[in-house]
Amino acid sequence: MRNDTLSTKPMIFFYFFILSFALHINAQTSTWYVDNAASGANNGTSWTDGWQSLADIQWGSIQPGDTILISGGADGSEKTYAEALTIKASGNETERITIQVGQEAGHNGTVVITGNQYWGILFDGSGMSVNGYCHYVTVSGQVGTGNECKIRVSDPDDSGIYIRGISSNFIIEYIEIAYNGADDAALGENGNAEIMGITEDIDSSIPIRGEIRFCQFHENDADDIHMTSSYQEIMEFGRLKIHHCEFYQYNDDCIEVGINGVDIYNNVFHDRDAYRSGHPDNIQSYGSYVRVYNNYFYNMLRTDSDEGNCNLYFHPTPATTGSHCSHLYAYNNVFYEDRIPPAGTCGAVQMGFGYGITSLSDVVLVNNTAIGSWGSALTIEFADLGSENIESIIIENNIFTDCARFPMLESAIGFAGDGNLIYGPHGSDSDVIVDYNVYHGEKADYLYYGGEDRRHTYEEFKINTGCQEHDVTTDPELDPVMSEELGVDMNNHKPINETAPVVDTGIDLSAFLNMDDFPELNAGKAGIVRSADAWDIGAFEYDLSESHILLQVKVFLEGPYLSQSMNTNLLVNGHLPFQSPYDTTSVSTFPDNVVDWVQVELRTLADGSGSNYRKSVFLRNDGQIVNLDGSEEIQITAPEDNYFIVVMHRNHLCVMSHEAVNIPQQ
C-alpha cells in the first residue's frame, strides 16, 4: 500500500523554496522607457534617456517581469511612431513582460503605431527573437484603471498585429486596431488583398493560448481577428478568449477562428460599413469547444449592399476539429436588425455540419434573443448526419421574433438533413430538443425540417415531432428603448414588465446542463440572477427588484353599470376566466366583487409609439381597479416619467387620460 504521508514535509519545503525564489526574481524587475522625443543617452532607463524609437529597444536586456512604457505625449494628444513594434523577448507563467502606454502626465496620451511596411505589432516567436520564442507578453493601451484605448495600430501594409512562430499566452488589451490595409492600392470594391486587424502564423506544434480584450476594431481591410492554427489535439474551453471588444464599420468577418477552445463574450458588433466585396460573418468558427455568450449584434446589414452572411456561423471542419465536432455553445446573445438591404438573406445564427464531419454532440443554443433578422433566425444544416451519430442538440429558451423579413423567405427557422433525425420536446430522449422558444412574427407560420419534403406549417412541426410543447407565439413584449451612442442600448430588449409573456415561462436549465461549462448563463445578459423556479425566455432575466410606480384608478363600464356600481354577473355565474385575455397572467381565485379583467397601460406618447408599460388587473364593482389580490394600489414596474394612463377592456373602447401625468417611482 502506498503511504502518501511520507512525502508531506519534503513537499511543503519544496513549495516554500519555489515561492521564495519567485519573489526574489520579481524584486529584480525593471521599467524601461521609449520616447521618440527623448534626447538623452538612448538607453531606455528613464524618460530623458529613453530609447528614441521602437527599433532601439534592446530586447536582450528585457527580463521576465519587466515593463516597457511608450510615451503617448500629453493626455489628449497623440504621439506617432512610424515603425513596427517587434517583440523579441519572453516572460514566463509568473512574470509577464508588459508593454504599455506611458502612465504619468506628459506621457499618457495616445501612442499611434502606423505606416510600417509590414505589420504594426509583431509577437515574434521565430528564431530572430532572443530566446526563439515569445510567451507571456502583454501589450496594453490602458492608463491606470481607465477604459480608453490609448494605443492605436493603423495603416501598415500588412496586418495590424501579427503573432508568429512559437508564441503563446499573449494578452492584447485596450488597443484600437483600425484602417489596416485600407490604403493599399490593391484594394477597392473588388480588392483581393486580405489584410487583417489581428492574425497569426503560430507554430503548429503548440496550441494558441491568449486573450484579446477591451479593444476596438474598425475599417480594417479583411477580418478584424483571423486565427486559424491547425493544432487540434487539445479539447478544452478558453484557450483563446475574446471579450469586451467593439467591432464596427467592418468589411469581412469580425472574428474568424479555426481553432478549438475559443470563448467569445461580452462584445458588441454593430453598424457594418463595408467598402470592399466580401462574405462577412460577425463570428465564424471552424472548431469544437467554442462558447459564444453575452454578445450584442446590431445592424450587420447595409441599406446599399446585399453583402452579409450571418451574425454567428458555426462551420466546423475536420482540419480543425477532426471528424467529430462537439461542445458548441451560444447563449445570452442578442441579435437585432432594423435595416433593409436591397437583397440577400443575412441571418442571426447558422450552423453547417457537413464538410467531413461524421459525428456531432453537445450543441447548445439557449436563452438568445433574435429580433428582425433579414434572413432566418436559425438555420442548421445536418447534411448526411443521422440519428446514430448525433447526440444532445438543445435549442431552448430562445426568442425568435419578426425574423426572416426578406420577402422570398417563408420560415424564420430551418433544419436540413437526411430526414431520419429525431426531434422532440424538453425531457425527451431525442437527437434534437426544441422547446420553450418564442416563435413569433409574420414568418412564424412555417418551419423547415427533415429531408426532401422539409416545408411544414409550424403546427405540423409541433404535432409531428412533439417539439415546442411549451411555446410562446405571441409578441414577447420587449423594451424598445434606444440610445444615442450605438442606436440601441446594449442592455436593450429586456421584457417590458413582469407580465410580459417571456417572464417566468422558460425552463430552468441548471438541472440539465453542467453549469460549470456555462459561465454567466444563470445570470442573464444584464447580470440578473435567473429565477430558481422558472427562467425567463431570451437573453435577459427580468429584474423584479427594479423601481416601480403606484397608482389608483377608477373607471365604470357601460353595460354592467347600475347607479354608482356595476354588476358582477361574470363572477357570480362562473364565466370569469382564470387567465387574463390580454397576456399570460392567471389566478386560481378571485378577489371579492370583481366585474372583469382590465389592462392598465402607461404610455409616454399618446399614440402608443413610445415606451409602454402594461399590467393585467381586475375591475371591482365600485369602479376601483385592484391588483390580483384585491389591493387598491396598482404596482407597475416602470421608470419615473410623464404618462398617459390608459385602461383597456375587451368589449369596450379604451379610455385615456386627457394629459400626461407625472408619476414618481416608489
Structure summarized in a few sentences:
This protein is mostly beta strands and 666 residues long.
How far apart, in Å, are the first and last alpha carbons? 69 Å
List low-pLDDT spans.
Answer: 1-26, 184-192, 481-488
How does the major sheet shape up? Answer: 14 strands, parallel
Arrangement of strands in the largest sheet: 1-2-5-9-13-16-19-22-25-28-31-34-38-37
Count the DSSP helices: 4
Please count the beta strands (DSSP E, at least 2 residues each). 49
Determine the mean pLDDT: 86
| Helix content range | under 10%
**Which structural class best describes the helix and strand composition?**
mainly beta
What coarse outline follows from CA principal-axis ratios? Answer: globular
The tally of domains stands at 3
User: Strand share of the residues?
Assistant: 25-35%
> What's the alpha carbon Rg, rounded to whole Å?
29 Å
